[in-house]
User: What shape does this take?
Amino acid sequence: MLSHAGTRVLETHRLVLRRFEEKDAAAMFAWAGDSQVTRFLRFATHKSAEDSLAVLRQWQEAYRCPDFYEWAITEKETSRPVGSIALNVLNEHDRSGDVGFCLLRECWGRGYMSEALSAVLEFGFHTVGFNRIEGVHSERNPASGAVMRRCGMQYEGLSRELYYSNDGFQDCHRYARLKSD
Ligand SMILES: CC(C)(COP(=O)(O)OP(=O)(O)OC[C@H]1O[C@@H](n2cnc3c(N)ncnc32)[C@H](O)[C@@H]1OP(=O)(O)O)[C@@H](O)C(=O)NCCC(=O)NCCS
Assistant: This one.
């Protein structure tokens, strides 16, 4: 069984990962409303900060559940939220989960997501007790695979049209890391 701990604050060299608050709606809209960021994602691109606020209101409720893991990625230097990262339970019995993430476009290429994902994997394996954590990305979105590899996830193959994104069905590369890796 997993030992759920809820969305706890995680700290890295340059980032603090924390729970979202309703006041983060405008910051979230800056990435969730950017069609270049959401191109390969499954949620509809937000049309206004009201859409972001509606999501954040749902998450305030969800944070009451200890198995809900959804972090705002904030820069230590500025305290501003620049992205999000989620850890989802796939199967409690198998102690398996998956990760999903997105980042404000102006922050791409600085290594932020590799830093955030490393912290989430560490938390997932050693605090919650996951045995296996997966990630998938569109074959047209190689930066996401680079992040997964940098964080020690291993390539497991290609699944055709695995999900439907804002840019249609996506053939996806699959990665996973085990606790023992
Ligand atoms: C994917 C994403 C999270 C990457 O975040 P990031 O903080 O820029 O990633 P990092 O800086 O930690 O690492 C980027 C890696 O991708 C590589 N990369 C960047 N653009 C690339 C491209 N077009 N093709 C191949 N590799 C690319 C970088 O070289 C780096 O790899 P390296 O360390 O081996 O050099 C970010 O681009 C994003 O939010 N995209 C939109 C949302 C999304 O696609 N989420 C993932 C869905 S599965």
User: Anything to note?
Assistant: The chain has a mean pLDDT of 98. The longest helix spans residues 112-128.
